[in-house]
Amino acid sequence: MAKKRILTGDRPTGPLHLGHYVGSLEERVKLQKETEEFILIADVQALTDNFKTPEKVSSNVRAVALDYLSVGLDPRLVTIVVQSQIPEIAELTVFYLNLVHFGRLLQNPTVKTEIKQKNFGKEIPVGFLAYPISQAADITAFQANLVPVGEDQLPMLELTREIVRKFNRLYGETLVLPKAVISKSPRLVGTDGKEKMSKSLGNAIFLCDSYDELERKVMHMYTDPNRIHPTDPGRVEGNPVFSYLDLFSDKKDEIKELKKRYHAGKVGDVEVKRFLVEELDKFLDPIRRRRKEFENDHKKIDKIIREGTEKGKQVASETLYEVKKSMGINYLF
Ligand code: TRP
What we know:
Helix content is 54%, strand content 8%. By secondary structure, the chain is mostly helical. The protein has two domains: 5-188 and 298-327, HUPs (Rossmann fold), CATH 3.40.50.620; 211-291, Tyrosyl-Transfer RNA Synthetase (Orthogonal Bundle), CATH 1.10.240.10. The two termini are 33 Å apart.
């Protein structure tokens, strides 16, 4: 039986963090053996709101690839592709633009939230508003069956499925109808206790953080705001220090004991945080070791991305060929 084809991706606007790990990277590593996995570094999409500072995007392409390799994505099993180097995706986008009406784009809840955050005011770039259409091109270019994503990406998948159905209805069965696979792990809270870990909120622990950076961030972490003295009974539920321990440490018995003592006011924040620093450091250690293998060898990373992108381009150009054929615009070639 043919392996299922998977497409996932990230915007390269900064290094990846623990939230990316639990939300998707871990799952990608697990899936790499049993599926045919393409991973897209979505630099064109990242430019839709960073077009004034393209270096913010370009300088992170290699960094994101290095993060992928560091967490154990194996270039012999997964294909890492760079979106901007596959113009076939842009060409598909142009055809799909006709299949979506303007009002539909304005309804996308994820895009609506982003528009508010990004302070575009009245000047929303058309490219930004239309990026979900370009994301449909990403997904269909690879004829992906499954797209593992976080919940915020569901509107993109919904739109992609609408485009696929409409295309197939108008021009004949051509595109694979993809399915979203929603990550089972809940969103990782930030070090400040806010709902979401994110680089722009300044509450992230990066996969590339050194021991010192890790220590500084953990020792400043938000815990239970109502607890002033170590002898006050503390809250474990919703306390990010314990959420991280649950996710990144396998010392289950010690954690259970610590929680009991915390709850009873028999342990200070500092001791719990010290323990977390060591446990996170252990978690990051193999990631750092793999990073070292590639870090100083730009040629090796570039070769992996180049070969991946070439392979991706091949697949995308086959899709584009079929798309043009179905539309009857394959006049000359
Ligand atoms: N929109 C995704 C994000 O912000 C990134 C992305 C671009 C993507 N193209 C994709 C995700 C295709 C899945 C499939 O994280």
